Amino acid sequence: MRWYRERHALSSSSVEGVLCLKSGENTMALSKRYNPGEAEPRLSNFWQEAGIYHYSPDRPGKVYSIDTPPPTVSGNLHLGHVYSYSHPDFVARFWRMNGRNVFYPMGYDDNGLPTDRLVERRLGIRAQQVGRSVFTQKCLQVSEEAEKDYEALWKRLGLSIDWRYTYRTIDELSRRTSQLSFIKLYKEGLAYRREAPAIWCPECRTAIAQAELNDIDRQSEYVTLAFPLVDGAAGETLQIATTRPELLPACVAVFIHPADRRYEGLAGRKVRVPVFGQEVTILTDPGADPHKGTGAVMCCTFGDTADVAWWYTHKLPLVEAIASDGRMTAAAGAFAG
Length: 337
Known about the structure:
CATH topology of the largest domain: Rossmann fold
Radius of gyration: 32 Å
Largest sheet: 4 strands, mixed
Mean pLDDT: 87
Low-confidence stretches: 1-18
Helix content: 25-40%
Order of helices and strands: EEEHEHEEHHHEHEEEEEEEEH
């Protein structure tokens, strides 16, 4: 077999210069100029029609299964998606060439808050405006359109995926599987109902996961407040610095570090919360940082994860000062609304 370039006077309807592969009596001419717009769709269609990447459950031999996290349907794919999905494709091709029966499907995570927000951006509607059933149908419509674009890009990249096994987290099988898993957890006593704090978005009106949060740095400042000691002398106060004075109506305790000598003898005594007047107990806990603020910290339900931990550990009362719409509740008195 040998390569050579033909140098012939070609007709005006021919390509100028061809690269030929000659073997025996057969010659295959290749165009001098590669046309990706023609070649890539043709090859992609051939790979799919020939079933080159198809998984067969009946095929003998070992199965190599690849379960990649399905991309979230929240907008357009970007370079990071291409980079991350290239890696498992290298692995799939390696094991396929080594004789394994490779199971490599593609999925789409279209059952969650990111897809909700995508629908809101594209259609300019909110679930609260149009109702649950209408909004659900719009989510199905928009996510399906986006997933077609995703698949077109993956195929253009040549990912060796078996598209026959494509799944969606919003489809009937995925939802049914999730429901059955939850029922199993419930029957085993691992899932239960209780009143507990959750990360809540007042704009989306839904609980959100820690993984859906983006941390940002903001310039803030401490506000130092005087908490009068209930059984103290006139004018005797405990100074507390806070960045969340709006949570004063939800203050349920004050914490100091057990080894902080500045506050010896205060544990177990009570202070009166400024403005709102409720009396709360001074407690000790190693989580109180003597070097932060004044070293004394108020525990409010809830300002951060430390408040949650103290609430659980010390079995403190729960006061809801901020409602699900982000407004102050009746606990804030004159500041409600």
